[in-house]
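hiii, so i know i said id send this last week but things got crazy w the move. better late than never?? heres the sequnce for the chain we talked about at the cafe, plus the structure i predicted for it. fair warning i was half asleep when i ran it
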Amino acid sequence: MKFTVAAAAVIALALAATTASAGVVITEKVDLDHQGVKSKTKQTVMIQGHKKKVITDEDETVTDLDARTMYIIKPKYKEFFKVDLPPTGVYAMKMVWDGATVGLSKATEAPHKVAGYSCQDYAGTAHIVRFDLSVIKCVASDAPGAQEFVEFQKAQAEKFKGTILAPKGEIPDGIPVASITKQVQPVWNPPPSVPPQVAANIRASAAAFKPIIRGISVTKIEVKDLPTDTFAVPAGYSKGVVEAQLPRVQIKQKEKMSAGGVPTAPAAAASAAPATH
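okay and structure toks below
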């Protein structure tokens, strides 16, 4: 009897340790309509504790909240770029246009199923400079790894408190198993002080602007213990200079954001980094 009790205690401790260290791996497909140009890609989101890694076809992004650091890793060139948290410049812009700061609230009371998961719709909108941004997410609170995912989101919100990246509204309790983010440019009514020709040019630009729509759908969620080196820069990679890799318009945006400005166009952000939750 004593052997049985002791064995049960050891098993219980082992299970508790496994649960405490478990991470969540979310595989997603991404459908992007960038002003009429459509593409399909995939990405993987990995979270464990206060660390997150997003893998896309082009690069990898590692976020370490405790170290207040983000690494942009380019496997093709064996390079990485180090960014302090909270990020500024194009990296802050990317999070804003991804909808990270949009306040969300329940859109419907009744949950429904997406990809086999029961989820609740949340929605929110924001006006950024001359663009309207809308976000809809179907959040599954019972999805495996939901607690780990939400804890990271809350920890990140705490780190970003007091900055332009601080999320507004509530943080949904679960993993978004489907989301749609849409950027549109509404009709602009200029003040009388704007010269007629300038106003006409801006109206023409707004009329020609096609929406940017990004849809993300979860295809698989796994709970597993992730090795420490999952969130490390691979050995042998060289440190790159962020500004040297950016088009001139993005460098200007980065300088403006660093000075306390706000993003002015979603087009620049769309090419800056992968879409993430």
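btw The first strand starts at residue 22 and ends at 34. thought thatd interest u
miss u guys!!
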